[in-house]
Amino acid sequence: MNAISIGGMFRTGLTLVIVILLPLLYIIKVKLEDSVESQTAFISEAGDLVPRHRQNHGQPHQDPLAKDNHCHPMAEKIIFLKTHKTASSTVQNVLLRWGQKNKKTFALPKSGKSIFSYWKSFKVSDVHGYCESCPKPDIIAHHLRYSPDVEKLFAMDEPVYHLSIIRNPTSMFESVFNYMKGVAPQFKTAGTLEKFLDDPHKYIKHSKQMTSFFSRNHLTYEFGFDPMEEEPKKIAENLKLISQKWNLIMITEHMAESLAVLKHDLCLSIEDIACFITNARPKKTELSKKTQEKLLEWNQADARLYDHFNRTLWRRISHIGEEKIAHDVEKMHTLIDQLTEKCVDGYLPNSQLHPDFRTYQPPGLIVKGIQLTEEGFKDPLCYQMAMSELPWTRELMKAQGIPTNKLDKY
Questions:
Q1: Measured between alpha carbons, how far is residue 371 from residues 156, 240, 284, 351 in Å?
Q2: Which of 65-79, 342-356, 360-374 shows the highest mean pLDDT?
Q3: Measured distance CA(270)–CA(266) in Å, rounded
Q4: How many CB atoms lie within 10 A of CB 210?
Q5: Which of 84, 94, 202, 357 has the fewest CB atoms within 10 Å of its CB?
């Protein structure tokens, strides 16, 4: 076969390849354009704080605040055990905002107040409008003491995400003591934390029902167990039961990482988990080493609870991926810094704040809330992030047709 014949065959083959490939390339081009249009349409409905869609070297811009649309939440229902003096109001704010945005229903107190009777075990009869055949709520997020009755609020065949938050018992107990001293007789009688710790059994005799559980291991109490338990084996059994039930127990000292894990578990966005710190005491006491040792000895159950779930949190972070969590934490801090610069004017006592931003203030104590800038008042996200529990509860009650005339007043 000569060179001319071979050349002719090559040109004929090349022509056939072009004829076949051109239609295929056109189809692929159309599919890609459809995909881009689909992504653009989705991003434009995301409702986040950054521009919806920009061209970047011909590729659709992915919204850095949007949630992962390939994520599957661990559950659609949430039980949040709101513990005392752990920054739980900050986590509650995240859940209330997210719930309202997604038209979730909340289990709210039948009393018409912003709290359940947390000084005794929870009962389903404490919930407004509860009945076995009534529609089930999506979230419960107000102060309560956990009991198995909480589970009865949700259908047995649907998964429920169990969430709470705990804090280092040394700093937490100091905070509880000084925060509640005006209303807890056992603390008021002692006068100082050091005097109380010298002989705590002497002072807890003065306790009253609503505040007695603050005297010792109050986190253990709020999880439904005996706060006076001292037997190590029994404390270990209680920890095992909590571990089996609760999906995530956040750590106050690692709030940002905890929120990033929550984002992962429930498929939230960075905007969902962004938060301002509210209900903060302006002045805190430095504890001596001796006082810290006494606190840990007196609150052994809470100390073991904290140590156990602090380790558990970091195992979860390792499982999800430390780089992924760190990336989400960085994005969250960036957004919070932007919103703080734009919206937060300062922190003021209740008397100087708009009613929506006033926090509960025990007798004899000044607790500061958020003062928004003029721009912050106009920004819906900033306004909701700054709102305290009582006005939030009022909004939810109105949305669910519940009378608000018995709601607490500051």
A1: 43, 43, 21, 11
A2: 342-356
A3: 12
A4: 13
A5: 202
- What is the CA angle 330-95-396, rounded to 5? 145
Q: What is the residue type of 22?
A: L
The average confidence (pLDDT) of the chain is 85
| CA dist., res. 237 & res. 241, Å (int) | 6
Beta carbons within 8 Å of 43's beta carbon, 6+ residues apart: 52, 53, 60, 61, 62, 63, 66
| CA dihedral sign of residues 34, 35, 37, 42 | positive
Which CA distances in Å does 345 have to 256, 341, 353, 374? 23, 8, 11, 9
Distance of alpha carbon 49 from alpha carbon 181, whole angstroms = 42
381 contacts 351 by C-beta, under 8 angstroms? no
Please state, in angstroms and rounded to a whole number, the distance separating the CA atoms of residues 193 and 286.
12
State how far the Cα of 224 lies from the Cα of 233, in Å rounded to an integer.
17
The top-scoring range by mean pLDDT among 4-18, 106-120, 359-373 is 106-120
Query: What pLDDT does 65 receive?
Result: 58
Please check whether residue 38 is in contact with residue 65, taking contact to mean a CB–CB distance below 8 angstroms. no
3-state secondary structure of 327: helix
Residue 27, Cβ neighbours under 10 Å: how many? 10
Nearest CA among 228, 236, 189 for reference residue 208 = 189
139 in Cβ contact with 104 (< 8 Å): yes
Class of domain 77-341 (CATH, top level): alpha beta
Look at residue 11 in the predicted model and tell me its pLDDT.
53
- Cα–Cα distance list, 115 to 7, 51, 241, 360, 399 (Å): 88, 39, 25, 12, 18
Least confident of 64-68, 167-171, 283-287: 64-68
Residue 275 tokens, joined: 């938060």
Asked if 223 and 164 count as a contact pair (C-beta separation under 8 A), the reply is yes
Neighbours of 349 (CB within 10 A): 15
State how far the Cα of 271 lies from the Cα of 48, in Å rounded to an integer: 7
Tracing tokens 């925060």 back to the chain, one arrives at 179
Cα–Cα distance measured from residue 244 to residue 238, given in angstroms and rounded to the nearest whole number: 10
CA distances (Å), origin 198, targets 111, 212, 408 = 39, 18, 36
Tokens 């189809």 map to which residue? 27
pLDDT in tens, 133-147: 999 999 999 999 999
